[in-house]
Design goal:
This is Portal protein. The protein has 522 residues and is an alpha+beta fold. Among the domains are: 126 residues, no CATH class; 39 residues, no CATH class. Helices cover 38% and strands 20% of the residues. Helix 4 crosses helix 12 and helix 9 runs antiparallel to helix 10. The protein is flat and about 105 Å long.
């Protein structure tokens, strides 16, 4: 039964039981991305748990962090060449100036790069828009010092996905009627006699739940007492749970904050999406078993090589007993004595089937790259036997893009989600700025615009080839203005392009100069 109403209230649990699986997926993905594979050797160790090899395999465990580079490369291609933002109102307009300022002050290119990587192992990313101060002066005020003046401005920032809890509209699987940003705030409080007796400390830390409930037009702030309720490990990782207690005062001047816009201030960016659920699909979950097999195979190969780097010896059982053979036995491994009528001294060797092990490793590595839609040669080197070339044998841009097609298709899919959320966020930021400054005399109002973002695919462009194609199509006519050429080639905004043109004109005037036409009549 689906409960209609607020997600967080007295008597409910934090996090909600319905979100435990999602949060566990985030945590598992981050663990694998960070190279901390807690269950990665679980399969091999469980098979060998009754043998002496189990402890040795765990000691020799090798964690190969493939997901780091596989998830970073799409972000590099998406933002390696910064996109340009257009308001559509022309260079020098108030709207374009504010758009450029919002993009620059919030460092959107770097934020997008980080969110694409994080979304790769989570499946979801969120950005929040607010109008306030960027500097945190709470510590200054806590020390009793006068806080410096901080300017108010529109801020676009990423929000941790594990503290965002959307509420779906009735009958919809993807549309949100409200979005909750809720986190646990641990507050240091003086401890009583019992706390001092148990812990030996004079203070204790008490959890409180802080909730920002975003609904169209408003933000509702709430604060609740929390009681620890245990740890949920149903989905393979520990998730702390709490029981929500009584509602208490927030300490804010107003608990209901008007935003002046019907748009929710929190925007969702899925890494990959389908139409039957709002949660995004990450790039790690489907690869967990393959990654586990790769790391186990590497550990077993290393174990075989280590085990047989100093093999056991066998030979006469009386070697080293008399003076003539004393101290002649040299070997780091164990020695197995045999009678003189048996074989000559030698080493014990064993066929470890290493060729088969490396063949399986090639197949597993190929599967990882195939499932990640990433050509292996994209990283400048190859490991698997089916290497697919180095990617450097193609010189024209068409052939290069054809080789890049798998990863470019993946980047385009990610870009579609990022583009929509980013444009929504910028438009919302402009609305907040105009609403917050309504009636302010020295603020020049402007009309919020829905911007256009021009992205680049990250593949190097053959400028000569592109110019030749343009010349053929237009019969030798100019196809781009100096202003647009500078913006495209240098990746700058309108203001910088105008300044470059001004300097070019000044150089031309200084070097060529001008004279009056009447000089030729003299």
């Amino acid at each position: 039964m689906i409960k209609i109403g607020k997600l967080f209230a007295t008597g409910e649990y934090y996090p909600p039981p319905r979100d435990i699986q999602r949060l566990a997926r985030y945590k598992r993905g981050r663990t694998i991305f960070d190279g901390r594979h807690p269950e990665i050797y679980e399969r091999a160790s469980s098979l060998l748990k009754d043998t002496p090899h189990a402890a040795q395999l765990k000691t020799l465990f090798i964690a190969v962090n493939l997901m780091d580079i596989l998830l970073t490369k799409p972000a590099d291609l998406l933002t390696g060449e910064p996109p340009t933002y257009e308001a559509g109102t022309g260079a020098g307009s108030r709207e374009q100036e504010r758009l450029d300022s919002i993009v620059e002050e919030n460092d959107l290119t770097q934020m997008v790069h980080e969110m694409v990587i994080g979304g790769g192992y989570r499946g979801d990313s969120f950005i929040k828009v607010r109008y306030g101060t960027r500097a945190d002066v709470s510590e200054t005020e806590a020390l009793g010092l006068p806080a410096p003046d901080t300017a108010l401005e529109p801020i676009i920032e990423s929000v941790r996905a594990d503290i965002v809890f959307p509420e779906l509209s009735t009958g919809s699987r993807k549309k949100f009627k409200a979005i909750n940003v809720a986190w646990v705030d641990w507050v240091e409080e003086p401890g009583g006699k019992v706390v001092r007796w148990i812990t030996g400390r004079t203070e204790s830390y008490v959890p409180y739940l802080v909730v920002e409930r975003h609904i169209p037009g408003y933000i509702i702030h709430e604060r609740y007492k929390l009681t620890e309720s245990g740890v949920n490990s149903e989905w393979g990782v520990p998730i702390s749970t709490y029981l929500i207690g009584d509602k208490i005062t927030t300490g804010l001047s107003e608990d209901v904050e008007a935003t002046g816009t019907a748009t929710l201030l929190v925007h969702h960016i899925p890494y990959k999406s389908v139409d039957d659920r709002w949660e995004g699909i990450n790039g790690v979950e489907k690869l967990e078993s393959v990654l586990s097999a790769i790391n186990e195979r590497l550990a077993q190969i290393d174990y075989i090589l280590w085990k047989h780097s100093d093999p056991w010896m066998y030979g006469p059982e009386d070697i080293g007993d008399d003076e003539s053979t004393a101290n002649t036995l040299r070997g780091g491994g164990r020695y197995i004595p045999v009678s003189k009528d048996d074989h000559e001294p030698g080493y014990m060797t064993w066929e470890g089937q290493l060729n088969s092990a490396f063949t399986e490793l090639d197949v597993l590595l190929g599967l990882v790259y195939q499932m990640s839609e990433t050509p292996q040669w994209l990283f400048g080197t190859t490991l698997a036997s089916d290497k697919g070339g180095t990617g450097t044998s193609h010189t024209d841009s068409g052939a290069i893009k054809a080789r890049f097609m798998p990863i470019l298709a993946k980047v385009n899919r990610i870009r579609a989600h990022v583009d929509r959320a980013l444009r929504d966020a910028i438009w919302t930021a402009m609305q907040l700025e105009n609403y917050a400054n309504d009636g302010v005399s020295d603020f020049e109002k402007y009309t919020p615009v829905y911007p256009r973002i021009s992205w680049r695919d990250g593949v190097p462009i053959d400028e000569k080839e592109a110019a030749e194609v343009a010349q053929i199509r237009t019969g030798g006519k100019a196809t781009i203005s100096v202003h647009d050429a500078i913006k495209t080639l240098d990746g700058v905004d309108d203001a910088v392009a105008e300044e470059i043109i001004r300097r070019i004109d000044a150089d031309e005037a200084r070097t060529t100069g001008t004279v009056e036409s009447t000089v030729f009549n003299e």
